Amino acid sequence: MTAMSPKVRLEPYLTLEELKQRYKQTKDRIEARRWHLLLLVAQKWTIKQASELVGLNYDYAKTIVRRYNSEGPESVRNRIKERQPPTPRSLLTPEQQQELRQVLQGTAPDGGSWSGPKVAQWIAEKTGRDRVWAQRGWEYLQRFGGTRS
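Above: the chain sequence. Below: its structure as C-alpha cells.
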C-alpha cells in the first residue's frame, strides 16, 4: 500500500451490526481483536489506523483483512486450538522397545537398579546416538514399568 494507506473495502459478508456483535460476543481474545480490526475497517478506518488501535502488526492486519475478503467470516476463527501437537517420535523401533522391556527385568549393566540415565545410555548405545537425554531414559523406564534407583 502507499504511504497514505487507502481505505480498504470489506466484502459484504456481514453487516456493520453483525461485525459489532461478533466482536462483542466472542470469548476468544485473538478472535476479538480480529473482529475489532474488521469492525473498524468496515467503519472506514484505514488498516494502519485500525491495526494501531487494536495493537496488531500492520502486515498481520492486512493478512486478516485479505483472508476475510477471500474466505469470509470463518477465516476469523482462532485455529490455534485446533492444531494437533506433533506425534512424538520414538527413539526405539518396536523390536528395540521389546528388547528394552526384557533388559529392564534384570539388573543394570553396573549391577544396580535401572535409572533414567542408565536407560538413556542403553538407548544411545542401541541406536548409535551420541547422546540420549536422561529424561528420555526416565520416560522409557516409566513406560515399561521399571523402577528408579
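The CA atoms of residues 22 and 66 lie 18 Å apart.
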